[in-house]
Amino acid sequence: MLRDLEFERKREIIKLLIALTNELRPYVPLLLSYHGLLTKLDFVRAKALFAISIDGEMPVLVRESEINLINARHPLLMISLKKENQSVVPLNIKIDEQDRVIVVSGPNAGGKSVCMKTVGLLQIMVQAGLLIPADEHSKIGIFKQIFADIGDDQSIESDLSTYSAHLSKMKYFMEWANAKTLILIDEFGTGTDPQFGGPIAESVLESLNRKNVRGVLTTHYSNLKTFANSTSGLENASMLFDNAKMLPLYILSLGKPGSSYAFEIAQKIGLGADVIESAKRKVGNYQKKVDTLLVDLERDKKDLIEAKRSVDKKEERVKALLAENEQLK
C-alpha cells in the first residue's frame, strides 16, 4: 500500500513537470535571451563592485606598446592591507620605446617582485576589461603576448631542475617574443653558479632586447646592472632602502641600480660580526667598491627625496599664505 502511494506521488510529480514544460516551451528563446542578459548584468556588476573595492580607474589607452603607471597599487595586496587599515606604497614606472626593459635590483624583501607583478597584473586586468588601482592619467598599451617566468617550475616528471625550467622558458621567449610582447622575469639568471648564470642571463637579455620586447625583470647580478647601464633600450631601477633604519621603503627609483644590502641585512638579523667580516674579506675589492657606491647613491637619493618633500610642503604653505593674503586685500 505504501509503495503504491509512493509510486502515485512520483507519477503525479512527473505529470506536473511535463505540463509545466509544455507550458514554457513556446517561451524558450525568450528565456534564453533573458538568461544571457542577466548573466551579462551579473558580470558587469561584479566588475563594478571589484573596481569600487580597489578604487579602480580607467587609464588612457594608447596604440603604442608602452606602459606609464602613475600611483599604481597591487590590487590583491591593497585588499589585504585594507583589512589591517594599512596602505600600499604606490608604484610609478614607465616603459616606452626608449626604455623598453626595466632591470630592477635592490635588497631582498624590498618589493622588486611585487613591482614586477603589479605591472603584469594591471596589464592583464586592462586587457580583460577591468579598471585598475592607478591614477586615471596612467597610460596603457595593448600587448599581443605576455610572457612570465615567476617562481620555481622544477618538475620531477619532466626531469627539469629549477635552472633547466628557467632556461626552457628563456628559449621559448627568445623564439616567440616580438615588439608586441611584455616579458616579466623574476630573479633573472638564478638557479646555477653565478659565474656562468650571469653571462647566460646577459646573453638572453641581449637577444630579447634585439627583438624590441617590453618588460620588467628583477635581478641581483652585477653584470646585468652594468649591461643595462650601457645598453640602449634597457633601464636600471632600484627599490629604495633606508640603510639607517635598515628597512625597505618599497619605492621604485628609475635610472640607477640598487645594492642587495646583503651584509647590512645579515647584520640586522644578528649574524655574527666575525662571519660578516670574513665574508667581506672574501668579496673582491672591485665588487665591494661597487656595492659601497650603490649604497651611497641610494642614501643620497633618499636624502634628495626627503629634501624635495620638505620643499614641496613649504611651497604649499607659501601658496596658502599668498591666497589668504589676497583674500584679506
Question: What's this entry about, in short?
Answer:
With 329 residues, this protein is of the alpha/beta class. The chain has helices spanning 2-24, 28-53, 75-83, 112-127, 162-176, 194-210, 222-230, 262-268, 273-282, 285-328; strands at 60-61, 67-72, 91-95, 99-105, 139-140, 145-149, 181-185, 214-218, 233-242, 247-254.
How many strands appear in the DSSP assignment?
Answer: 10
Which CATH top level class of the largest domain fits? Alpha Beta
Strand order of the largest sheet: 6-7-8-4-9-10
Extract low-pLDDT stretches.
none
Explain the overall architecture.
This protein is 53% helix and 17% strand. It has 329 residues and is of the alpha/beta class. It has 2 domains: 2-43; 58-270, Rossmann fold (3-Layer(aba) Sandwich). It has a 6-stranded mixed sheet, with helices on both faces. A 4-stranded mixed sheet has the order 1-5-2-3, covered by helices on one side. The longest helix is centred in the C-terminal third of the chain and has 44 residues, at 285-328. The mean pLDDT is 86.
Q: What secondary-structure arrangement, pairings included, does this model have?
A:
Elements: H1 2-24, H2 28-53, E1 60-61, E2 67-72, H3 75-83, E3 91-95, E4 99-105, H4 112-127, E5 139-140, E6 145-149, H5 162-176, E7 181-185, H6 194-210, E8 214-218, H7 222-230, E9 233-242, E10 247-254, H8 262-268, H9 273-282, H10 285-328
Parallel strand pairs: 1-5, 4-8, 4-9, 6-7, 7-8
Antiparallel strand pairs: 2-3, 2-5, 9-10
Helix pairs in contact: 6-7
Keywords:
329 residues; alpha/beta; Rossmann fold; 6-stranded mixed β-sheet; 4-stranded mixed β-sheet; 10 strands; 53% helix
